[in-house]
Amino acid sequence: MRSVKRRLKPAIFLDRDGVINENRPDYVKSWAEVQLLPGALDALRALARLDWPIVVISNQSAIGRGLTTKEAVEDIHRRLAEEVAAAGGRIDAFYYCPHRPGEGCDCRKPAPGLLLRAAQELKIDLRRSCMVGDAAEDVQAAVAAGCKPILVRTGRGQAALRGMPQELLAECHVADDLTSAVNWILGV
Hints:
Blueprint: E1 12-14, H1 40-47, E2 54-59, H2 61-64, H3 70-86, E3 93-97, H4 113-122, E4 130-133, H5 136-145, E5 148-152, H6 157-163, H7 166-169, E6 173-175, H8 178-186
Parallel strand pairs: 1-2, 1-4, 2-3, 4-5, 5-6
Helix pairs in contact: 1-8
């Protein structure tokens, strides 16, 4: 008897702060501080038409800095998923790094650890996947994992564009916001 090998699917990876919701200089530490970016819910609803996993990949060093807790971050993710679902979209999984910069973990972007873990656990084909982010670290993580990076100008994206090396910028598609990124992914 032959075993049927499950076919790997592409996925859409999304950074959270600066892509879906406003980035705060003092970190998003609770649901009360979450402010969705204009058009984010509509973009996630459009993206949900794809039969691909939609996965949030996020650095959350506010945990390691003692500014918030894992429970508070997981509450943000649960409520965000509920709000997205109520609007007709979906987020299938959340992966986050709780470490501070310089701790040497393999999960903090620009390291690709979270993308690699998600790919293994969710049976994702990274070569056919996209990573939407607003920072050079998002682009670097996507390239290291073998995904197509999309840099949005929202959040820290505009500053990232000014400081990004040309060879890294050449690796990614640049979009104004999540809506523009989703339209590019969908070929609209």
